[in-house]
Amino acid sequence: MTTSLADVAASGATLRAFLHGLPGVDRVGADQRAATLGTRSIKTTAKAKAIDLAISMVDLTTLEGADTAGKVRAMCTKAVRPGGDAPKVAAVCVYPDLVAVAAEAVRGSGVKVASVATAFPSGRSSLEVKVSDTALAVAAGADEIDMVIDRGAFLSGDYLKVFEEIVAVKAACGDAHLKVILETGELATYDNVRRASWLAMLAGADFIKTSTGKVSPAATLPVTLIMLEAVRDFRDATGRQVGVKPAGGIRTTKDAIKHLVLVNETAGDDWLTPEWFRLGASSLLNDLLMQRQKLATGRYAGPDYFTLD
After folding, report:
1. pLDDT tens-digit profile of 43-52?
2. The pTM is what?
3. Which residue in the list 59, 143, 146, 150 is annotated as catalytic?
4. d(Cα 27, Cα 226) in Å, to the nearest integer?
5. 179 is catalytic
6. Given 78, 112, 170, 245, the catalytic residue
7. Bridge-partner residues for 247, per DSSP?
8. Which of 70, 184, 218, 257 would bridge 249 by S-S if both were Cys, CB 3.0 to 4.6 A apart?
9. What residues have CB less than 8 Å from 68, skipping those under 6 apart?
């Protein structure tokens, strides 16, 4: 990190000055660019490759109060073997109390286990609870932690509190990767999305993630565009690459491919891998598999051909 960026969080005042000194986002321009890139058409062989790439980037997710060990095991089986010769997904994402079940189910497959933590989805809890939540999930076998920021603190301008919480949770992760969820649907402005992205990265995030999937709007193309610009500019400034994960509301192959186009045109090829870009979804995988079969056979399979995620 450059000296100037290393000193950014020396105080609440310096952190605020830095974040509010970032260039403002042209809302009209961001909306128009995202809409234009969303019209790109990909056909035949390129589309088949894009579908397989998207499958390999999926964080297959279940985050419901009715989740059971059996449901998680079934999801993990599908994550490892989605169908036919389709590639395995990147990770499964579950609540902390089900991490051990998921870790056992995907053991040796290469599929990662991600767990939400830090009082997901609200983020309204003490730092001690957030750190303990994270440490317990890692001890149970989580490879990745998806934490939520305290949006109340962020929106009231207490950036240093948010920064220090991310630093503490990152330390509790040990060798596990940290994805920081911004909950962009609650941040109100594109400028806040850019500020929150930089704040998370300065604090040590390995990934920045749009949403919990519990708040609308969730992952929109303009918001993902702004976050991709942020990770690109952050790498230019620091030399450290950070991943991006849009999550929530991505349900169709068309949605997934729009996001891949956005990655390619905004951040570049370096981010077009599961190591640096993920798609958080619970229902996307089936549509990708249906479209994959259509390309291979010329026929659509009915929705009941695939197991429910």
Report:
1. 888 999 999 9
2. 0.94
3. 146
4. 10
5. no
6. 245
7. 280
8. 218
9. none
